[in-house]
């Protein structure tokens, strides 16, 4: 598991792997405690103080083999306890032989990196854990100083960690790292991160434990089991019931509208008696759309905040903080907010843009109806989205219900919303929205040529 797959495995290989991993032989029974899994008493006490008393399926399956020194591939839906499944055994082994850098945790998004770091921080308080978050959008010099102190655990996005490795020969010492964790591994193993991962892997020891966790199991991840010819070195694989279906507590609706008046319907929904006081995430397909929608809603007096990659990291953290604390009840986000983030209070997921991949829809609506709570999702569907909705329904095996809105009532807002959209668009133009991304692209091209 120390090299990337060169290509996606054939489906027949995947099918055979799935057959092998559907019913793992060594998963602990549901009645097991963390102590039964081999977790030390000091960590069990920490968990109890956090009101965590029973391990989840992914924890029961993966903690014992990680403690035993095996590579592990774990698949489970968001909110199933994947982070603790790798954090607990890493912290336990660290307490036995503390040194830095002990573990490197890679994740595709900055927000998820901070969330993982928070869990490590809380769980590792008893041993004085030193963790370091290394992500883009934050000051590199400050990060370099933290890395120079040899933290026990580095939680990073691949691009920024690669930048630190390139900055000077001794900037990051990963040669003694015992663990490499890849969270949301399906995204990390996509073509987007190949060059960055190559640089990072080259600086890490070949004798390490590699732990891959994901909410979306792919052919390329499962094929890694077959990459090792030595049976003793094959990773332990456990795939829980995955997110191919949406949860039963989620009510799913759509409203069919002409494409040119989608913003008007969005505003009417947010102002309706049913939704005006609810905690809502609005998902958009592009950063520019999310920024426009945010500006438009603010212009109309609807309190909201944005989350997308054109914002600085501090702005993104501030937005998430306000939304988590329910200071602001409407978050307008791109898909950077669709994975891994634990925001328990979300009551409605509103898809302003319909995702092209049904899996992205499943991740988006997974932000609500969590931990047995109820929740709603609503798609604003135009004529060009019909096939996308049909694909989603086929993937989730669920038919969405039509949400009734009186067209005449909606269109009363047309002039007001159109003017607010115009103002928002002008504000984006005046602030030169998107220029930072263009500068970054030019720098990247210069660096590679």
Question: If you had to describe this structure to a student in words, what would you say it looks like?
Answer:
- The protein is α/β, with parallel strands linked by helices and 449 residues long.
- It has 2 domains: 11-239, Rossmann fold (3-Layer(aba) Sandwich), CATH 3.40.50.300; 250-436, Rossmann fold.
- 43% of the residues lie in helices and 14% in strands.
- It has helices spanning 11-21, 41-49, 57-67, 82-96, 110-123, 140-148, 158-167, 185-188, 194-202, 219-227, 262-271, 287-299, 313-324, 358-365, 386-396, 407-411, 414-430, 435-448, and strands at residues 72-75, 103-106, 131-134, 153-156, 179-183, 209-214, 236-239, 250-256, 280-283, 305-307, 330-333, 348-351, 375-381, 401-402.
- The strands form 2 sheets. It has a 7-stranded parallel sheet with strand order 3-4-2-5-6-1-7, sandwiched between helices. A 7-stranded parallel sheet has the order 10-11-9-12-13-8-14, sandwiched between helices.
- Helix 13 links the parallel strand 10 (305-307) and strand 11.
- Helix 4 packs across helix 5, helix 7 packs across helix 9 (194-202) and helix 12 crosses helix 17.
- The two termini are 31 Å apart.
- Residues 3-24 have low confidence and may be disordered.
Mean pLDDT reading = 87
Largest sheet: 7 strands, parallel
The poorly predicted ranges are 3-24
Strand order of the largest sheet: 3-4-2-5-6-1-7
CATH superfamily of the largest domain: P-loop containing nucleotide triphosphate hydrolases
From the alpha carbons, calculate the radius of gyration and give it in angstroms: 23 Å
Number of helices: 18
Query: What is the global morphology?
Result: globular
Intertermini distance: 31 Å
